[in-house]
Design goal:
The protein is an all-alpha fold and 243 residues long. Helices cover 81% and strands 0% of the residues.
Length: 243
């Protein structure tokens, strides 16, 4: 077993082995939800229509319409959600900015009390708060981190979230339609490709979250397959009732 002999080597070893993945999920959440939602919802939509004995043309039109409608819906919802969250954060930052301008000493004392409550010696806490409060923008950033738990320089972008959701949903929703566009006349190629896509998506997500790739892949496969099976049966029942 290797022995770390020097302090420099210790620091290098700590640096090399003490890294973390991005856990905020700013890009992961809309991408994963978009792809999974597109794949599962469009697969279920198409199998439901196929279960009702619809023709090939109807199934293809249904799949393409589901792709377009779902992608725009996901993008609009994600944009509105992230924009609303960002506006709320910016409003709170404005409140904090006004307080720092009107009552700088009170805000400095508040920051010192916060550090003291975390175990810093009171005199040192006051000195740290005094030095950090010299720059108003730095003071705002620190107060935002400590009081609101946010980073003002790293707010999510509504456009990025919407674009990510749109693209990932469209990509996922395209999979069950693709075999038909390439000339397939039966449901099973679309179903097979979609199920492979579900397993692959689950496995890719596991690479990011450090979970077992086969478990994550099988879980997504089971959930998507169940959704497709249920809607196929419902489509058959509805088709028989209205036929």
């Amino acid at each position: 077993m290797a022995i770390i002999e020097t302090e420099a080597t210790l620091h290098e070893a700590h640096r090399d082995n003490h890294t973390h993945r991005d856990v905020n999920g700013g890009w992961l959440r809309p991408a994963v939800f978009g792809a999974m939602d597109g794949l599962v919802s469009n697969l279920a939509l198409m199998t439901g229509v196929a279960g009702g004995s619809a023709g090939q043309q109807t199934i293809v039109i249904t799949g393409l319409a589901g792709l377009a409608a779902g992608a725009f819906s996901m993008a609009a919802g994600e944009y509105t959600s992230v924009a609303s969250q960002r506006e709320l954060v910016e409003a709170e930052l404005d409140v904090e900015r006004r307080e720092l301008r009107k009552h700088p000493k009170d805000e400095e004392a508040e920051l010192a009390a916060l550090y003291a409550a975390r175990g810093v010696e009171p005199e040192l806490a006051r000195e740290v708060a005094r030095q950090l409060s010299k720059d108003p923008e730095q003071a705002l950033e620190i107060h935002a981190r400590e009081e609101l738990g946010i980073d003002p320089s790293d707010l999510p972008s509504p456009a990025v979230a919407a674009g990510s959701s749109f693209g990932s949903f469209a990509l996922g929703a395209l999979l069950p339609v693709l075999p038909y566009l390439l000339g397939a006349s039966a449901l099973w190629p679309a179903l097979l490709l979609a199920l492979i896509g579900l397993f692959a998506c689950g496995a890719v997500v596991a690479r990011v979250t450090a979970r077992s790739w086969w478990y994550s892949g099988l879980r997504q496969l089971a959930l998507g397959g169940a959704a497709a099976g249920v809607t196929y049966v419902l489509g058959g029942l509805i088709g028989a009732a209205v036929g």
